[in-house]
């Protein structure tokens, strides 16, 4: 009689849920997978304005470096629309939004008017590049080569910024978001066509 009570459906489901919750707390990949699933059902949608933002504040300048030691500044990218994402390999929300950023990147990577900057906030290029390659993403990886201004990155990652061709901040999202939805793609495309 005791074994039947121990292995009841209620106890088994409680044990499974407990294991799942523990995994979510200790394993960033599990938490990221859950968040990706929630994105697919419509949660974590980026807040997109109805219209293209009017004249906005100029983005402060900063420098970036790639794995080859090449550096460039944000101001050198004027004339291009910039998708700037600050992230880290250990961050579950960052991991959760990466597939949608990769999808957006693949859609625009041939467009000479668009630049994608995925910036590892830990400053560990090799680790970030290994993560991107392991996940089979095509995203370019950079690290900050100067101080990151608070106007670009506050206190939370992931943070995504869009700069228009004039170098103005026209979009800012703190926290994970699904950048593969049609509404965001349409909003992003308006700046490229402008």
UniProtKB/TrEMBL annotation:
> What's a BP term from Gene Ontology annotated to this protein?
cytochrome complex assembly
The lineage is:
Bacteria, Pseudomonadati, Bacteroidota, Chitinophagia, Chitinophagales
Q: Which GO terms describe its molecular function?
A: oxidoreductase activity
Record the organism.
Answer: Chitinophaga pinensis (strain ATCC 43595 / DSM 2588 / LMG 13176 / NBRC 15968 / NCIMB 11800 / UQM 2034)
**Gene Ontology CC, one term:** cell envelope
Tell me the keywords, alphabetical order: Cytochrome c-type biogenesis, Redox-active center
Which is one Pfam family of this protein?
Redoxin
The protein's superkingdom reads Bacteria
UniProt-recorded name of the protein: Alkyl hydroperoxide reductase/ Thiol specific antioxidant/ Mal allergen
Which part of the chain is the Thioredoxin domain?
A: 53-194
Q: PROSITE patterns, per this entry?
A: THIOREDOXIN_1, THIOREDOXIN_2
The record's annotation in SUPFAM superfamilies points to: Thioredoxin-like (SSF52833)
What compartments host this protein? Cell envelope
Record-linked InterPro entries? Redoxin, Thioredoxin-like_sf, Thioredoxin_CS, Thioredoxin_domain, Thioredoxin_ResA/DsbE_sf
